[in-house]
């Protein structure tokens, strides 16, 4: 813990690297989306204002970084610590329900005189969650394009509250192209360094070895870097060579990191009624030919936790196709025909109902791309907003890695998929999993 305290005011190397990585992504998105109409951007009528907006965003991010680091440090506290909190620390009387994470931060702030911690706890206390209970689609006009919502009704009547809407040409060709080339450039730059591979279990690793014809390679949990579910860089390089690497590639950016984020957020709010305060990060994913998440019909994607009690969950999903796909690659909902994967087309659906309950019927799957390349932009909106939502979290310290080294995450073998990410979250940290924390 002493070590963590020391770090508080000094952004770590990985933060600095992260910033420069974002810089690259940001710059190219800005370059590529010049055609975005400035009237889409609230108060952003000139390039000067846009530049200013970006600068302020960058400065804000720089300021936020050490504070978010505190949050993470607090999160790393033991559950045993947290459980004492409930009797030791009197939670201020507000109408808020503090999560374990938040309580850990508050407790931390009380046991130290650290100014930064005091500040973060004040921000947390002052944070007012907003609720996003419904989606309200309506027709918008963008650069002369008329974009009405089209509801996709289920083929059979159903009592499910899930609604799916489609918006043609929600993004222009130029916007799609800009996003794809920013993504490609970012992935290309990151490929100078081989990724670190992480598995949700040692049995998943074994299955992948078997699939690669390397069942003679015996692995045990000791092959994972301590505290993580990742193998070291040397072993990762070896596995990369053995595996077929039919991975999807995801890059992420956060609100305020580029001009496009504001343009998109504004357009979504106008057309879909999803408020910015409840929006998370933006994620671009590319699926090469032959790759689809959860192809098999038994493992589907559910964007929220069924029977979960936390309302800080994904109430709605916005998904935009950035490219036509010749064959396959469809997003499929039960008993709804969504048609082709068409460039610029946006899909909007709710995962939770108006009371904040996850709808089992929001389950869907992304089918395998048969021919062509699939690129999508996704953003998830949350029913109840929370302090760290939409803020780029600092990178975890583990595993030790090179600057800009990416991550490949392989799930339960049935999913059949490994996914490449340009950012690290905390899923590979054993302690984080053990505490079932969900900060991001
Ligand atoms: C968590 O608590 C256990 C004992 O309860 C201790 O051994 C361990 O070092 C603690 N871990 C951290 C990260 O503080
Ligand atoms: C806080 O939690 C209680 C029960 O866990 C619930 O009844 C109440 O509605 C919650 N309040 C808020 C503001 O979320
Ligand atoms: C901090 O501790 C004091 C007493 O030690 C207590 O009165 C106060 O409520 C605590 N602050 C918070 C934020 O819990
Ligand atoms: C949150 O709401 C309270 C009560 O309405 C208000 O006093 C406070 O300023 C709000 N906090 C922020 C950050 O807006
Ligand atoms: C709604 O659809 C699901 C899946 O197609 C089905 O299991 C369920 O029985 C349907 N409910 C009603 C009331 O039709
Ligand atoms: C819809 O119908 C199914 C089967 O009749 C039932 O299990 C489910 O609880 C219903 N859902 C809602 C939201 O009413
Ligand atoms: C990396 O991991 C492999 C497999 O566990 C191990 O054999 C090797 O010694 C490790 N290399 C380094 C440099 O730690
Ligand atoms: C992709 O990898 C999975 C296992 O990781 C395998 O089952 C599947 O056949 C592979 N697909 C292609 C097109 O290579
Ligand atoms: C998921 O994809 C598979 C394969 O295309 C299909 O059989 C299944 O019906 C799909 N499920 C849903 C919910 O669309």
Automatic annotation (TrEMBL):
InterPro entries: P4HA-like, Pro_4_hyd_alph, Pro_4_hyd_alph_FE2OG_OXY
One Pfam family in the UniProt entry: 2OG-FeII_Oxy_3
Protein keywords: Dioxygenase, Iron, Membrane, Metal-binding, Oxidoreductase, Transmembrane, Transmembrane helix, Vitamin C
Molecular function, one GO term: metal ion binding
Every Prolyl 4-hydroxylase alpha subunit domain range: 188-382
Annotated segments matching region Disordered: 1-25
Gene3D superfamilies registered for this protein in UniProt: q2cbj1_9rhob like domain (2.60.120.620)
Compositionally biased spans, kind Basic residues: 1-18
Transmembrane stretches, start-end: 47-68
Top-level taxonomic group: Eukaryota
Name of the protein: Prolyl 4-hydroxylase alpha subunit domain-containing protein
PANTHER family: FE2OG DIOXYGENASE DOMAIN-CONTAINING PROTEIN, PROLYL 4-HYDROXYLASE ALPHA SUBUNIT
Cofactor(s) annotated in UniProt: L-ascorbate
Cell division keyword on record: no
